[in-house]
Amino acid sequence: INAEYMGTVFNRIIELLSHTxxxxxxxxxxxxxxxxxxxxxxxxxxxxxxxxxxxxxSAVVQFAAKEFNVKYETSAIITNDGIGVSVNQSAxxxxxxxxSELRLIPRDRVGCL
Length: 113
What we know:
Elements: H1 3-26, E1 31-38, E2 46-52, H2 57-67, E3 75-79, H3 91-98, E4 101-106
């Protein structure tokens, strides 16, 4: 395999990737799905929420808190590993960093048995 052939193959790959990325960016319907579990309830009820990738994660948390009848202002989101999740980012970013399964904890219940 010579260098000229490899250059042609490389350029073709870049062209295909560029085309794929531009097609993906045109599709505004990209969504992420979260399974949000109410950690303060022993029955561990959950809600499945699908939102656009670019939606603010704070809106996802507000919706989930409303569904569970808990106060958004006094709630926290954590991963199954106990890592806190900041609401000041997009839903797509949270999905990529932490996955789809999250836990909602009303802060007045933190530390309670």
